[in-house]
Design brief:
By secondary structure, the chain is mainly alpha-helical. The chain folds into 2 domains: about 100 residues; about 150 residues, no CATH class. Helix content is about 75%, strand content about 5%. The protein contains 10 helices and 4 strands. Strands 1-2 form a two-stranded antiparallel sheet. A hairpin with a 3-residue loop joins β3 and β4. The termini are far apart.
């Protein structure tokens, strides 16, 4: 009886997860294809929500992260990415870090040195990857004709990044459920298994190589990119799990039914977006 109840709960959770995922993919498809201002605004909204969840997580442990400094810093970095100006990104990062440090001096007793360290780390951890996401979508220089549509470089590589990241998460989840027996990182994320990671790795390599075939890109390069996406995506997930365990929370939020918060959903993207951006810069454009 207990097993049947657990199975029913898992099935209900899976259905919710799938429905939320489908809705998310439809919205993501629209935003990705639109690009430009639409994409940048969507990225900014997601980054700000992730920052709120991040600061709330550490506040749960009794800390006082510099919320306002983070909003200014992340907002400035994303604006710099949208404008294509590296100087603005660096200015926003430096300015927000200095502001957080000054806040600790002016509000001594309310904002501690660890709070400042958490704040500056969070500004980098959330702001820079979302800035790379915007810069990746803005890349140009080639067109890819497929049976579905003709994609410019930025659109194609954004799809590679998202599909690769989603594949890693999905294949790891189902492989772990079916074959999981050996824990991958039990002290950080007890549900992750080595078998799940291997399934995610193989699935991501196949998915990204398939996209490479569709886009007429070198299959060996794309297979290698898929492998690194799976590895960094898993590490991104584990990094967030480590932070949540430290903060004493299970999910960063509940805005996405079946998936948790924005930070939960984009923890891997924070690592894979910069990866695909630099892969595109150094291997596709050169």
């Amino acid at each position: 009886m207990a097993d049947w109840i657990l199975k029913s709960k898992w099935e209900a959770s899976l259905i919710t997860r799938i429905i939320s995922g489908v809705i998310g993919i439809v919205l993501a498809a629209y935003v990705i294809q639109e690009g430009g201002q639409t994409f940048s605004i969507a990225a900014a909204v997601l980054a700000i929500l992730a920052w709120f969840e991040y600061t709330r997580a550490f506040s749960h442990r009794g800390g006082s992260p510099a919320l306002f400094s983070g909003l200014l810093g992340i907002g400035g970095m994303l604006y710099g990415a949208y404008m294509g100006q590296l100087e603005l990104i660096l200015l926003a990062l430096m300015g927000s870090a200095v502001l957080a440090l000054i806040t600790a001096v002016l509000m001594r007793g309310d904002v501690s040195v660890p709070d400042v360290c958490v704040s500056v780390a969070g500004i980098c951890y959330i702001g820079l990857p979302f800035a790379h996401l915007i810069m990746l979508r803005a890349l140009s220089g080639a067109s890819y004709v497929t049976p579905i549509e003709t994609f410019d470089l930025g659109t194609a590589m954004i799809w590679v990044m998202f599909i690769g990241t989603w594949s890693s998460d999905s294949f790891a989840y189902f492989a772990g459920r079916a074959f999981g027996a050996h824990k991958l990182a039990p002290a950080i994320s007890p549900n992750k298994t080595i078998e799940g990671f291997v399934g995610g790795l193989l699935g991501t390599v196949a998915a990204v190589a398939g996209l490479g075939y569709l886009l007429q890109m070198p299959l060996t390069h794309m297979a290698g990119l898929g492998a690194v996406i799976a590895i960094l995506g898993t590490l991104g997930d584990l990094v967030e799990s480590l932070m949540k365990r430290y903060a004493g929370i299970k999910d960063s939020g509940a805005i996405i039914p079946g998936h948790g918060g924005i930070w939960d959903r984009f923890d891997s993207v924070l690592f894979t977006a910069p990866l695909v951006y630099y892969y595109t810069i150094y291997f596709v454009l050169h």
